Structure formats: C-alpha cells, structure tokens
Amino acid sequence: MEFGKLQSLVELDIFDCLELGCLPYSIMHLSQLKTFRLSWYDKLENLLVEFEKLQSLVELYLFNCSQLGCLLDSIVHLSQLKTFDLSWCDKLENLPVEFEKLQSLVELDLSNCSQLGCLLDSIVHLSQLKTFDLSSCDKLENLLVEFEKLQSLVELDLSNCSQLGCLLDSIVHLSQLKTFRFSKCHKLENLPVEFRKFQSLVELYLSYCSELGCLPYSIVHFSQLKIFRFYDCHKLENLPMEVRKLQSLVELDLYDCFELGCLPDPIVDLSQLKNCPSAINWRMYQCSLGSFKIR
Questions:
Q1: What is the pTM of this model?
Q2: CB–CB of 140/117 below 8 Å?
C-alpha cells in the first residue's frame, strides 16, 4: 500500500500485527500525521532511517515493541512531539544521545523497560516535561544528579524500581510535583531530609517499601496532600504526632503496617477522611474515629 498518498492522514494505528515484518518507507511521506501507534509490534527491531521526516508528529506510541533495541538518533528532530510512549520495550537499553532536543515533550513513558540501566544526563533539560513514568525499570539504580531541573514535572512514577535504594535530596526541589509514586521500592530506607519542600504534593504513594522504617516529621507540612498510601511498609513503627496538620487529606491507607504500634491521638481530628483502611486490630482502637475507617 502506498501510504504516502494518504496526505490527509492524521492518525495511524498499527496494533498487534504479528506478521508485519517491516514498515513501508512510504509512511515517511505522511506530512500531516500527528498520532502514530505501533503497539504490540513484536517484529519491530528498528525504526525507519528517516523517521524524523514525520515533522507533524505530536504523539508516538511504541508500546510493547519487545524487539526494539535502540532508537535512531534522528528521532530527536521530531520537534512537535509531546507524548512519547516506550513502555514495555524490553530490549531498550539506551536513549538517543541528544534526547534533550525533544523540547516539546510533555509526557514520557519508559515504564517496564527492564534493560534500561541509566538515564542520560541531558534528559533533565526537557523543560516542558510534566509526566515521567519510570516504573518497573528493574535495572535503574540511581536518578540523575540534576534531576531537580525538571521544573515542570507534575507526575513522577518510580514504582517497582527494585534497585533504586535512595532518593537524591535535590529531588525535593521539583516545586510543581503533584503526584509521586514510589511503591515497591524495596531497598528504600529513608526519605530525603527536606521532604517537606514538596509543597505542591497532592498524591503520595509509598506502599510496599518494606525497608522504610520511619516517615520524616516534615511530612506534616504537606498542606495540599489528599491521598497518602503507605500500606505494607512492614518496618514502619510510628506516624508523626502532628499528622492532624494534613487538613486536605481525604484518603490515608496504612494497611498491613505490622510494626505500627499505635496511632497518634491527633489523627482523630482528621474528620475529612473518607477512606482509611488499616490492618491495626479493631479491638485496640475502640475510640470514635469519625470518618477514619479501620478494616
């Protein structure tokens, strides 16, 4: 098929085409193409050499292209690209050297890229990036030293990065961050000292961090926090006594925190809580907890 003749084409979806061996070069002539999905394309090992000719491209999805081992350097010239999904690209080990040239990028999904061991330093120069998903990147051991330069970041997902043992203190300077997921990071023992600087945080997920022994007192200054989940943190022994200061909180989940010996008395003042399951023995807490629910 002469794809190049479809000059008005805006969206192209190639999904689960198991026998498709390679992409026709004529795709490069789709000058109006804005959304391109190549999902579940098991035979795709490389993108077309002149892929950068798709200059109108705004969204590119390469979800579960399990044989895709690398990206052409030329892909960084897609100057209009806002959304780039590379999730479940199991063989992807590196990003193009000049990845920072994707200056329009707003959303980047690298989740489940199990061979991705490190991030390029240049990635911190993606000044428009708002959503960054690195969940289940099993080989990722460290974040970039200047990660805080991603000042537009609103959502960051580091869940299930099993080799990630600590967070850089500088990460607290992500002043626009609203959603932070760090669940199932089993090597995490401590949170950054100045964690309180996450003043814009609305959702915080720390569940299944089995080595996390305590929460910093500064967490009580999260005035915008609405959802706080840290269930299955088996070494967590105490909550900050002034947790009542979290007056925006509507959901608090501390299910299966076996070492959590007691709830601080001020928690009964969190009358706005809508859903707050806990594995703490009901018989230990016969007091009136308002909307705080124990299961």
A1: 0.86
A2: yes
